[in-house]
Amino acid sequence: MLYAALSDAAAPSRFGFIVSKGVGNAVTRNLVKRRLREAGAETLRDRPTGVDVVVRALPAAASADWPTLRGDYASALRGALRRLVPVPEGGDSPDGGTEVG
Q: Which of 5, 19, 43, 101 is most solvent-facing, going by the fewest CB within 10 Å?
């Protein structure tokens, strides 16, 4: 699950991660958290300011490989940003891609 909110355009983007014991033991939780931090760092390169994101890892994240987890994160972030900033017809979406529709 991913929650996003727009913040002050000049404020640095912030990320928070919730990885409960339901995801697995400490080693597994830390692995998931490290992977999510890296996905967040990739987002930070694209959107260094103006976004606050909270990611809640579900138990399925423990068995997901890195490409799957990164893809799920990116998809959830695009959806959350799309809901925050409606894209005008024929315009570019907030994540830099063009929305097809």
A: 101
